[in-house]
């Protein structure tokens, strides 16, 4: 398992109730499952609309189960933003 930091922005931050938190996971899919379990309810709905950055790189359309996490990495959770 890799120890990473999950950072929440905007609506994701409000739904999680924290700005960031540690997580242990091998893939983005595992990390998202872990945070859904920690924060049931609204966060699960918000995550459906989010995009993700892993160590600054966009995940895009890659399957979350194929996105590997590295020790000390960062997962940015980005809900859609209004404006540009």
From TrEMBL:
Coiled coil: none
Transmembrane segments: none
A Pfam entry, by short name: ThiS
InterPro entries xref list: Beta-grasp_dom_sf (IPR012675), Mopterin_synth/thiamin_S_b (IPR016155), ThiS/MoaD-like (IPR003749)
Superkingdom per UniProt: Bacteria
Name by which UniProt lists this protein: MoaD/ThiS family protein
Organism for this UniProt entry: Streptomyces similanensis
